[in-house]
Amino acid sequence: MPKLIFKDVSKSFGETLVIKNFSAEIPDQQFLVLLGPSGCGKSTMLRMIAGLIDITEGQIQFDDLVVNDLEPKKRSVAFVFQSYALYPHLTVRANIAFPLLMDNFRWWQHIPVVGHFKRRADLRNPEIQKKISEIAETMELTSYLNRRPKTLSGGQRQRVALARALVRDPSIYLLDEPLSNLDAKLRAQMRVEITNLYQKVHKTFVYVTHDQVEAMTMGTQIILLDGGVIQQHGTPKEIYDKPANVFVAKFIGSPPMNLFEVQVDGQIIHLPSGDRLDLTGHSIPNFDSKRVIFGVRPEKLKQSESGEGIPVVVRVVERLGAETLVAFNFAKQAEDSRITKASSNLHYMRIPGDSTLNSGDHCFVEFNLKDASWFNLETGSRFQ
């Protein structure tokens, strides 16, 4: 089972550069998530790993083997597509068995009648039947083996697609947004099933998604891309707690990190509203400039019970059961309708679900500055 190594991988379509200088090293048996907005190059990267797209520059290695020119079928990878890609005229059994049948495919099987009987004979092969039964049991598909895809639900079709990938016993599993066609409940269920599957097979998974929830809950490592460039590579906790730049801070987290352009004067932060925060007792980086971007996660804010803190006006309250998300403006800015009506200027705090706050209420917010993030105002990069 190989270690994945990317050395300055780039991909261009004509004059359009899609992937730029992608370099990373992924140890064996990791669940790597390629995360980013639509059009950032993550699916292109996945297809280059599979050999479905040629590499323009750089190298992809499986351990010490450079696979740039290796045919897809010789790379020992399995690909799960976004659209399931099941054959509608074949049963679930035949769909799962298809990779095994193709391993024994010969040119003369293109002859219609001969090929049909050869595939039927191969499908009755005891070894192939055993593999199908084992995989079907693992994916809870045993009772559906003789049905066709059109009779299955979306979640069942996705399990068939996963079973077809599993049956080959590859070294690397590649999954291209496999849950995007499912509803919210099924996505949550399939996240658990894929995670359990990863823990059972102990193989390398490379998973493409634009959904940060999938990335944070399933991945052991995340590579966040934007415009074909790696923004950050790390564990979910590293990326959440210490975003490398403003883009990562905005992309990871729901709601995202609160970001404020502030003036730092010694141990005092001057917020855009004119309010002040005292940094006494907190260590902060050495800034090149006194104007920086200050970031704090919504769960690091709380409603003050003592009446101390920053005065705010509540704009939106989202009650989610165990927790409540509160969007607010600073009270000193409440007179400016341009600010209060602009969603981009709302800030968020995550508080317990039994909160009695409602839209329009005035309250005080306390900031926990222990795990605050600081970013360069000009470059957006994180101060270490």
Automatic annotation (TrEMBL):
Keywords: ATP-binding, Cell membrane, Membrane, Nucleotide-binding, Translocase, Transport. GO terms for cellular component: ATP-binding cassette (ABC) transporter complex, substrate-binding subunit-containing. GO terms for molecular function: ATP binding; ATP hydrolysis activity; transmembrane transporter activity. It holds the Pfam family ABC_tran. InterPro entries: AAA+_ATPase (IPR003593), ABC_transporter-like_ATP-bd (IPR003439), ABC_transporter-like_CS (IPR017871), ABC_transpr_MalK/UgpC-like (IPR047641), Mo/tungstate-bd_C_term_dom (IPR008995), NA-bd_OB-fold (IPR012340), OB_MalK-like (IPR040582), P-loop_NTPase (IPR027417). Residues 4-252 form the ABC transporter domain. SUPFAM superfamilies: MOP-like, P-loop containing nucleoside triphosphate hydrolases. PANTHER family: MALTODEXTRIN IMPORT ATP-BINDING PROTEIN MSMX, TREHALOSE IMPORT ATP-BINDING PROTEIN SUGC. This is Unannotated protein. The lineage of its organism: unclassified sequences, metagenomes, ecological metagenomes.
